[in-house]
Amino acid sequence: MGPHPAVAAVRHAVRASLVHLEPGDRVLVACSGGADSLALADALAFEAPKAAIMAGGITVDHGLQPGSAGRAEQVTRLMARLELSPVLSVAVRVTGPGGPEGAARAARYAALDQAADETGAAAILLGHTLDDQAETVLLGLARGSGARSLAGMAAKTGRYLRPLLQIRRDQTRAACEAVGLEPWEDPHNRDLAFTRARIRWQLMPMVTEVLGSGAAEALARTADLLRADADALDGLAAAQVAALGGTAAVADQGWLVADLAALPAAVRRRALRLAAIGAGSPPGSLSHRHVESLDKLVTAWHGQRRTDLPGGVRGERRYGRLLLTRLSGPEVAPLATTARSEEPGGRE
After folding, report:
1. CA distance 84 to 93
2. CA angle at residue 98 from 37 to 274, to 5 degrees?
3. Is 294 in the same domain as 165?
4. In whole angstroms, how far apart are CA 214 and each of 161, 170, 196, 336?
5. CATH no. for residue 254?
6. Residue 133: how many CA atoms within 13 Å on its side-chain side?
7. Same domain, yes or no, for 101 and 197?
8. Does 273 share its domain with 219?
9. Chain segment 216-262, per-residue pLDDT in tens
């Protein structure tokens, strides 16, 4: 007899994610001990030797709960039992902006990146499932963050692979049960103080009740469609940035406002975002509101001359051109603000 259907589905998903790697490559699986990452670790341990790939594992101890160090030790022992090598446990400090969820995420990815660098790993496997994708779409919808946010998580982002985006959460639980693995249930996943937990335990059940059992699949499919659209628009924006002389040009001589105004809004705003990032504005801090303030210098100009962006970047409209400059010292302003033109009548 073959493996349990859930085990087979997870293994197939992992096998498909490894096809672009070369024999001898090393991969790490990020494992918290939960059902999703545990099923992923088990499948990787099964599939990697067949592809001549070296498979290791890493667990990140965020230190946010009593006994977290002991839990991390249990997870490392479990991964060693699966014959993953090397097996790493990394403790991190969760500090900084973005609230507890954002700060924990930033600390976790920093630890994963460092582990990949130190071990020479070509890829890191993450256990996000179709249910996680559906929740991400709802979260992006609530934030009003645009198509890129609604596009959710990609199956591949740099060296990060998400093999389970077409696998349901109940399948990973069934896979763990079938192979005799006992997952750990993180209490934070049920703590309604966290936005993600409220979406998971309150909003998604309501959406499923109202729209039917296929709601999660529909939301994940929406993410796939919007990601393709967003990728196409990003490509058009990058081409326009190049045609305008690149992001360096907007700091040197500026971009002609007339050229920007002629672009479709979706392309123009993406180009402005690329310009702001190129000038030194941190991507994680650059919000839709900031990009919109730049866009208004182009399309809704009523005498305002500048807008201040995160990272000490200032956008200014001067004589028909948009310029972005990096400030220093007391002039640096972290939030978008606008100032009126000093020219008579506020006209160019």
Report:
1. 26
2. 95
3. no
4. 25, 14, 20, 41
5. 3.30.465.60
6. 31
7. yes
8. no
9. 999 999 999 999 999 999 999 999 999 999 999 988 889 999 999 99
